């Protein structure tokens, strides 16, 4: 059933569907980012496909796998009437994280609003035409995008600076307010380590 | 001295007409969950609303990229802390879908029963908390007592009342206890009793009904486009239940109804949840009936399952196997996969990317109430301040899940 959607897509957008596969039973189409919104509109409005349920939108950072367009924006859709699903993806972004912008799907599904805001917040993907693109889970003063692979998981960005009392031992400093000392899980680095993490050795 | 009120005629009185901004939350006694709603008011009418979430953000997805696949279970527990077992089962099924394994039949029934118990808890607490915020405290206490009965069962089975971390890839942490079936068969009628007591208090109460009926409406098309799933979507009339539409585990062998509403208002959401509790009880009854008493719980696959403890201490092969699974993690084949189950609030999805190692490359949770909460803005615009409380309550936002 969903395989036919992939065929329909390829017939409607020849050359813009870069790749298709059906791994683990999930039918996937990799789309040229230039036609991202057109493909979405086609999926929503074509009566044979009728994807009226907006399921999910997120991104994956493929920095550690050395993929050239660094990010993959992933969108899952479902049709209530037919019960079929599809995943569409688009690859965007330079290696340093710039140039990651793509059309917003908010005009097609209202539900894309928060999902795109989250994606912007976590990955720095900019959605063109989004009515209200600001951070959603992190606070406005936050620097960087935490789910990027080069963002250190241990990095601190406290809104209120740590108290520095000369003669006192922790709980002042980064441990303030914790009932226990913060454990260092990474043997090679302390918690103040703010270097970009390296991919794990194969 | 002349009296002040003499010369003022009604026509000259000027009330301030500029809109007022009001912050509700992030910590507000009438809202469960840490959420901030900035409303712009004209009198008592809401003309504009901005819903701000993120106060409970704990970096779930980032943390998952640092451990093994098995170490994700405690995190998913803490996503929806009202029905953690459903999250456990959902994540276990997601990894199993990627590895291409299926757990034994007894385990499938076990997961169904435990999952449905968690769903009953989830719906009861949502309905109870909504009543409490409307001033009806007694039903909440009834529901809390009923939930305690279920938590006792969970405690007996898993050892923990709330965050069980009981799921495993390829099975469960432990087989059912000896009196598993008896315990549930004895407990559910008591839960049922509390439920009907509280329902009798509510559904004919004029004040309660006035605050629910016709308030917080949403159309089916809007709900679908917003990504709503679960009881909140079904209350608008779209009969989409993952258990029915894409059956997993043994749900295709169960007989149950999918309750739907008509108008998508607060009353419909309340009643959908009430009815779903009853359907869950039906499912549990059937599952207990069909569940075999003997048989393995975990799959027999040395790549995935830890060897028996006795062998780990006595044989070198088992020690190595134990070490490899614990230190390197279960190897999940490279690729990407989206797996979805029916959670407490709707479709709970996991989108996973694996690079073939023992650590998830990317693990995305698709929390149902994230999508549901984004509809709040649209629903409360045009309503009055007191309508925010039941509308927000009936959406069942779970902070841990919504904020990842």
Automatic annotation (TrEMBL), chain A:
Domain of life: Bacteria
Signal peptide: none
Catalytic activity: a quinone + NADH + 5 H(+)(in) = a quinol + NAD(+) + 4 H(+)(out)
EC numbers, comma separated: 7.1.1.-
Record bears the keyword NAD: yes
UniProt subcellular location: Cell membrane
Record's bilayer topology term: Peripheral membrane protein
Region (Disordered): 171-202
Record's keyword terms, sorted: Cell membrane, Membrane, NAD, Quinone, Translocase, Transport, Ubiquinone
Annotated ranges, domain NADH:ubiquinone oxidoreductase 30kDa subunit: 30-157
Main location as per UniProt: membrane
Pfam families, alphabetized: Complex1_30kDa
GO terms for MF: NADH dehydrogenase (quinone) (non-electrogenic) activity; NADH dehydrogenase (ubiquinone) activity; quinone binding
GO CC terms in record: plasma membrane
Coiled-coil ranges per UniProt: none
Family, per entry: Belongs to the complex I 30 kDa subunit family.
PANTHER family given in the database record: NADH DEHYDROGENASE [UBIQUINONE] IRON-SULFUR PROTEIN 3, MITOCHONDRIAL, NADH DEHYDROGENASE UBIQUINONE IRON-SULFUR PROTEIN 3
Function statement: NDH-1 shuttles electrons from NADH, via FMN and iron-sulfur (Fe-S) centers, to quinones in the respiratory chain. The immediate electron acceptor for the enzyme in this species is believed to be ubiquinone. Couples the redox reaction to proton translocation (for every two electrons transferred, four hydrogen ions are translocated across the cytoplasmic membrane), and thus conserves the redox energy in a proton gradient.
Subunit structure: NDH-1 is composed of 14 different subunits. Subunits NuoB, C, D, E, F, and G constitute the peripheral sector of the complex.
NCBIfam families for the chain: NuoC_fam
Name under which the protein is recorded: NADH-quinone oxidoreductase subunit C
Species classification: Bacteria, Pseudomonadati, Myxococcota, Polyangia, Polyangiales
Gene, per the UniProt record: nuoC
UniProtKB/TrEMBL annotation, chain B:
InterPro entries registered for this protein in UniProt: NADH_Q_OxRdtase_suD, NDH1_su_D/H, NiFe-Hase_large
Compartments in which it is found: Cell membrane
Coiled coil: none
Domain of life: Bacteria
Keyword NAD found: yes
Family indicated by similarity: Belongs to the complex I 49 kDa subunit family.
Protein name: NADH-quinone oxidoreductase subunit D
Major localization listed first in the record, in broad terms: membrane
Function: NDH-1 shuttles electrons from NADH, via FMN and iron-sulfur (Fe-S) centers, to quinones in the respiratory chain. The immediate electron acceptor for the enzyme in this species is believed to be ubiquinone. Couples the redox reaction to proton translocation (for every two electrons transferred, four hydrogen ions are translocated across the cytoplasmic membrane), and thus conserves the redox energy in a proton gradient.
Enzyme Commission (EC) number: 7.1.1.-
Subunit structure: NDH-1 is composed of 14 different subunits. Subunits NuoB, C, D, E, F, and G constitute the peripheral sector of the complex.
Record's catalysed reaction(s): a quinone + NADH + 5 H(+)(in) = a quinol + NAD(+) + 4 H(+)(out)
Record domain NADH-quinone oxidoreductase subunit D: where: 134-403
GO cellular component assignments: plasma membrane
Keywords, comma-separated and alphabetical: Cell membrane, Membrane, NAD, Quinone, Translocase, Transport, Ubiquinone
Database matches in Gene3D superfamilies: Cytochrome-c3 Hydrogenase, chain B
Pfam families: Complex1_49kDa
